[in-house]
Amino acid sequence: MLEGFINVLKPPGPTSRGVVDRLRQILGVERAGHGGTLDPLASGVLPVAIGRSTRLLEYIQAERKSYRVEVIFGLKTTSHDLEGEVIECSPVERLEEEVLLRALSHFTGELEQVPPMFSALRHQGRRLYNLAREGKELPRQARKITIYDLRLVRIWPEGPYPRALLEIMCSKGTYVRTLCHDLGEFLGCGATSLFLLRTQAGPFKVETAWTLEEIARAVQEGCRDFLLPPEAGVQHLPAVVVKQEGVERFLNGHFLPAALCQELPAELPRGARVRLHQEEGKLLGIAIYSERMGEGLLKPEKVIFSSG
């Protein structure tokens, strides 16, 4: 049985679900899921979990993500990218780099962002993008996001539609194309996303991603170099090795005293998540660190694999 993660390089065009379905066909597996949706026109890192590793996807989805996006100014669309209809053209004679840099400084830190109508969010059981295609516009509640880093890589300042290449590191739930739209609104000329590449999602980076074609060819050749172990999806969490006498206790859902573990990471804060391994290295699951009467305790949050 296949278990683990695959760092897939999603191409522009198919949906994230479509990429996972194609991967299921290539591998001949039933259970697979992805760690964070990419829009159809977007490309880049799409972490895919196979088998029981799908239970670890939530820990990837909660991690920071990085993107490169090309923005065109003076153009608005219904979807905030080129998938939607153009609703406004406002030619710009020239966009000065200093003006753009000042604007970017207003879009870092904790922000509130209104999700676009063209999104997979649901209203009364229906996806918003389906309602948007019917011409409907519904009120959406703003959500808090965090932009950790926003940099200008390159600018093409000449009009009538200047362009810029940006690098973004952001929190879960950020719509980068909407960030482009909001940037255009701030500048008073409108903007939309031309091209979006996700360069990192949690521990997975674009430099080591595999295309579907490369994975299919590897399978035909009997190679599984593309398949990463289950812990690859949670390697950002501190590792704790459980002594043999504590393994069954954890698997049965009981608190694990620190004495039943090898040395805990230094200065582990209360509430921190850790990944638990057997002494042989096998991943057992995820636990939350707490303390009782001065003693460290690990509370099982998710048991993934048995000791067998």
Helix/strand layout:
Elements: E1 4-10, H1 16-27, E2 32-34, E3 43-50, H2 57-61, E4 65-73, E5 75-77, E6 86-89, H3 97-104, E7 109-113, E8 122-123, E9 126-127, H4 128-133, E10 143-156, E11 163-170, H5 176-187, E12 191-201, E13 204-205, H6 212-220, E14 239-241, H7 244-251, E15 256-257, E16 273-277, E17 283-292, E18 295-303
Parallel strand pairs: 3-12, 14-16
Antiparallel strand pairs: 1-3, 2-3, 4-11, 4-12, 5-6, 7-10, 8-9, 10-11, 12-13, 15-18, 16-17, 17-18
Helix pairs in contact: 1-6
Summarize the model shown.
By secondary structure, the chain is an alpha+beta fold.
Report on the architecture of this protein.
GO terms for molecular function: RNA binding; tRNA pseudouridine(55) synthase activity. It is a single chain. The model has no long low-confidence stretch (mean pLDDT 92). The protein has 3 domains: 4-63 and 203-232, Pseudouridine synthase (2-Layer Sandwich); 65-201, 2-Layer Sandwich (Pseudouridine synthase), CATH 3.30.2350.10; 237-303, Roll (Archaeosine Trna-guanine Transglycosylase, Chain: A, domain 4). It is built from 7 helices and 18 strands. 19% of the residues lie in helices and 35% in strands. The protein has 308 residues and is an alpha+beta fold.
The CATH topology assignment of the largest domain is: Pseudouridine synthase
Question: CATH first level of the largest domain: which class?
Answer: Alpha Beta
Main β-sheet, in a few words?
9 strands, mixed
Model regions low in confidence, pLDDT < 50 over at least 5 residues: none
What is the structural class? Answer: alpha+beta
Shape: globular
Distance separating the two termini: 14 Å
Percent helix range: 10-25%
Count the domains.
3
Number of helical runs?
A: 7
Q: Which sequence of SSEs, written as H and E, runs from N to C?
A: EHEEHEEEHEEEHEEHEEHEHEEEE
